[in-house]
Amino acid sequence: MSKYTLHINGNIKTVSVASDTPLLWVLRDHLNLVGTKYDCGIGQCGACTVYIDGEPTQACQTPISTLGNRKVTTIEGLDPKGEHPLQKAWQELDVPQCGYCQTGQIMTAAALLKKTPKPSDADIDKALAGNLCRCGTYLRIRKGIHLAAEIATKESA
Questions:
Q1: Average pLDDT over all residues of the chain
Q2: Closest to 106 measured CA to CA, from 139, 129, 84
Q3: Do residue 72 and residue 105 come from a single domain?
Q4: For the domain that residue 37 is a member of, what is the CATH number?
Q5: pLDDT in tens, 82-129
Q6: Containing domain of residue 111, as a range?
């Protein structure tokens, strides 16, 4: 076991784990940040999406030893009060069905909105192509992203 000091959601956390432990398990099992979900375990579904230095990354494929001083943001750190435009839109439109994939969807969508504040359907489909929804709520997800873009525009005005 090695000791790692991590920058998670603006806080410093220290864990003792094996160097090859995926970030996903450190978040869930050692830091009790369970918003990041496990689904496929091979980086194909997007349920475990977090930000590492602002970039969407699959936590299940990120060994803890590769983080160094990089900053990690989970769904819990996106907006601690749950007032990110995407979180508001998701609630207003009741986007999730089972909800399992939604944290990964929201994290990926937030990165999209940061780069493309008013995305087209094609922009959304391309950005979220790596995020699977077994319930098939893709149309509601897309509608939620468009609403979040509107909310963000109004909040910044």
A1: 95
A2: 84
A3: no
A4: 3.10.20.30
A5: 899 999 999 999 998 888 899 999 999 999 999 999 999 999 999 999
A6: 85-156
